Amino acid sequence: MERASEASILMLCADVPAQGLTLAKEALSMIDLPSPVVGSAQGRAYFEVCVSIGEVLTGTAAPASLQVLEQHHQKTPLAMVRLLSAWGLLVAYTRAGDTARAEAMRELLQREAPPLRSTPSNPSRLRMRVCGAW
């Protein structure tokens, strides 16, 4: 979990997505919890979202990366995973020029994450907002 936390900080706060992606991939490769373990699916979801966000931020995202973000965003019961995936989708949709879906993610973040009520149109500025360095 430590690597995933550090990966999140590097991607969301320090603007060092390549290093964050490397740590997120390491964290995902280290998690090998049997499915009967309570919470294992949610833990894996967090790691998968971190990897997909890293791929989006580094420009190495494949269609599968977006599918991971979309699936976890729609299906997870965990607010943390849903909000992280929404942010990753906001960045991906903005970069792809999909303004309608980007706006939907921006509205969701503004509604479900009160500190982000003034979500900027440039998702990279959101990175600083999340970490208090706005």
Describe the structure in your own words:
This protein is mainly alpha-helical and 134 residues long. The protein contains seven helices and no strands. It has helices spanning 2-12, 17-30, 40-58, 63-75, 79-96, 99-112, 123-130. It is globular and about 35 Å long. It starts with a helix and ends with a helix. The model has no long low-confidence stretch (mean pLDDT 77).
Name the descriptors:
7 helices; mainly alpha; 134 residues
The separation of the N and C termini measures 27 Å
Subunit organisation of the chains: single chain
Question: Given the C-alpha coordinates, what overall shape results?
Answer: globular
CA radius of gyration: 14 Å
- Overall strand count: 0
Order of helices and strands: HHHHHHH
What's the helical proportion of residues? over 70%
Largest sheet: none
What is the SS-derived class?
A: mainly alpha
Number of helices: 7
Mean pLDDT: 77
**Low-pLDDT ranges:** none
How much of the polypeptide forms β-strand, as a percent range?
Answer: under 5%
